[in-house]
Amino acid sequence: MEAKLFLPIVLGTPRKARESEHVAKWVYSKTQERGDIETQFFDVRDFDLPRDDYGTSLGASFPEWRDAIIRADGLVIVTPEYNHGYPGALKSVLDLLLKEYIHKAVAFVGVSSGAWGGTRVIEACVPMVRELGLAVTFSDLHFPKVASKFDESGNLVDLAYEDRVKGFLDELVWMARTLRWGRKNVPSKFH
Known about the structure:
With 191 residues, the chain is α/β, with parallel strands linked by helices. The chain has helices at residues 20-32, 63-71, 88-94, 119-132, 160-185, and strands at residues 5-6, 9-11, 37-38, 41-43, 74-80, 104-111, 134-136, 141-143. The mean pLDDT is 94.
């Protein structure tokens, strides 16, 4: 059997009372249940980002993130939609690195209080992660009207997501495994 894929998860908002935290923790628990995935949880709240500098020159200042992304076969981004866009903190964390992302898979979990379930935030993220060198999966996971999907303790109440998350993770595993094979076997100027 091939080695497990390393697929970290990042929760992309530092807001207080964030509904997306329930989603991120639930998706993280689903990855931990699988025998083909190893994961690690990151929260943008935990990054003490400077206010006067951004960019890849700071990657060494965040060795746990840098080392995880170097090792990663892909990445899961859980992000709420704020005014049709992504949180600035998420962009700042992603911008800490560049070459470490190239030819790795990324899958999106969109979260919103409205009916669209983060569709527009995912659309906004795609060009940004493409510039980082990440390859976006075909399947996204959407949580519209997120407050109705979890109880106050963070337990999932909409059991339809059990099947949805399986398909979402299956697609990510396929893409991450294929890209890992490509990084190891197909010459590229990037690795």
